[in-house]
Write a structure and sequence with these properties.
By secondary structure, this protein is mainly α. The protein has two domains: 72 residues, no CATH class; 110 residues, no CATH class. The chain has six helices and no strands. Helix 1 runs parallel beside helix 3 and helix 4 packs antiparallel against helix 5. The two termini are 51 Å apart.
Length: 191
């Protein structure tokens, strides 16, 4: 036997998809802001946008999406960090950290890695000015290049420089990999 539905039951059936659709629309809207924050992280790390521009943009997001977008931005910054952009990544972490003790210590560790990498590159540059230039001049002289042509010789284009900076990059990348795992775990707990 077929049950006869009341007007209320019929109305509830017809509007059930509207309530679910509203939640889905809100989730879709938040995902749109999260993806935008991840794209902003890429722009920031590639120096196409400043941190102020990025944060200003995220702060204009609706309140319910802004916190998740900020977390997504920080996760994308950490995931995209490498020795070449660690200064920018450390600046973003220091500026956006939540103030927690662990967050502060992880940001300080990123800053420490950044400083060690910077010091390493400065030492390589000093050695290049002292030893690398002499080696480059000997190499050019052996190839028959001399006179005013070697005055503008750039040691940074030498194989020695490339090998030294690649070694410094690899050392920094190894230290950064462990820190990135810790930072991502910390950021994952905050969501």
């Amino acid at each position: 036997m077929v049950k006869i539905k009341s007007s209320r039951e019929l109305a509830m059936e017809r509007t059930a998809h509207l309530a679910a659709g509203g939640r889905e629309a809100l989730a879709y809207e938040q995902q749109k802001y999260i993806r935008a924050a991840e794209a902003l992280a890429g722009s920031f790390l590639s120096e196409k946008a400043t941190l102020e521009q990025v944060l200003e943009s995220i702060n204009r997001y609706p309140q319910e999406a802004a916190a998740k977008a900020r977390q997504s931005f920080l996760r994308a910054i950490v995931a995209g960090a490498d020795p070449g952009n660690i200064e920018r990544a450390a600046a973003a972490l220091n500026r956006c950290r939540d103030g927690g003790a662990e967050s502060g210590s992880l940001a300080a560790a990123a800053e420490s890695i950044r400083q060690r990498h910077r010091d390493s590159l400065a030492a390589i540059r000093y050695r290049a000015e002292q030893e690398g230039r002499e080696a480059l001049l000997k190499q050019l002289s052996a190839a028959g290049i001399g006179g005013s042509a070697v005055d503008g010789a750039n040691p940074e284009r030498s194989a020695w420089w490339q090998a030294e900076t690649a070694r410094a990059f690899d050392t920094c990348a190894a230290a950064l990999a462990d820190l990135k795992r810790q930072l991502l775990a910390h950021l994952g707990r905050d969501t």
